[in-house]
Amino acid sequence: MRKPREPKLRQLDEHAFLRRLDPILQVYAAAMRPPGEQLPGRHSIMQRHTTYPRFRAFVVERPRSLPGLPGSVRGFAYGFHGESGQWWHDVVRRALTERGGPEHAAYWLDDAFEVAELHVHPDDQGHGHGRALLNALCEGRLETTVVLSTLDLDRESPARRLYRSVGLRDLLTDFDFPGGGPPYAVMGGTLPLAPYPAGSSSS
């Protein structure tokens, strides 16, 4: 039996992203394990995000050369330029303003690349795919800062270590977004990203 071919990093435009939205959502579900009733709403949110300014997306995708594989998309990441009127942007701006004042919020969000999602299927974690996705996503961006939110259940999770390794730091911790759910950390850094430390092996 031939071994499955190694997944490859591929950039997607808005149309290619939408064509892969179902397998992308399967990776999201496997990585985040949300209640099933939340997935249709997440599908709609991801569709809407493709209309945001300067949208950019990448997938880690296994070529479709073998029948019976569980899915070709093994990881994905996307983001866009943050602007007033976007839900996440406005919620975080209010929180940063309360925490450090309007100048603090403006520094991080006035010219920010917002990483909306970055996930690798649990079966494919530990091979550097998350690092490759983040690096490709942020490479060459013209914004001044990069910001994102990630689960704040474990400060030493692979995701938190990955983000710290490229210069991101905590802006908000134990943060509850409106609508309920687990606590998040909001992290931010300057662009371009700091080089990865030698020997880094985050997912």
Output the keywords.
disordered C terminus; about 200 residues; alpha+beta; about 25% strand; seven-stranded mixed sheet; about 35% helix; Aminopeptidase
Describe this structure as you would to a colleague.
This protein has about 200 residues and is an alpha+beta fold. It has one domain (about 10-190): Aminopeptidase. Helix content is about 35%, strand content about 25%. It is built from seven helices and seven strands, in the order E-H-H-H-E-E-H-H-E-H-E-H-E-E. Helix 2 packs across helix 3 (about 40-50) and helix 4 (about 85-100) crosses helix 5. The two termini are about 30 Å apart. The model is unreliable at about 200 (pLDDT under 50).
A few lines on this structure:
It is an enzyme of class 2 (transferase). The chain has helices spanning 14-19, 21-32, 39-49, 87-100, 102-109, 129-138, 158-165; strands spanning 8-12, 56-61, 73-81, 112-120, 145-151, 169-175, 184-190. The chain has 203 residues and is an alpha+beta fold.
How can the largest sheet be summarized? 7 strands, mixed
Spans of at least 5 consecutive residues with low confidence: 198-202
Helicity level: 25-40%
- Which geometry do the CA atoms define? globular
CATH fold name: Aminopeptidase
**H/I helix tally:** 7
- Class, according to the CATH hierarchy? Alpha Beta
CATH architecture: 3-Layer(aba) Sandwich
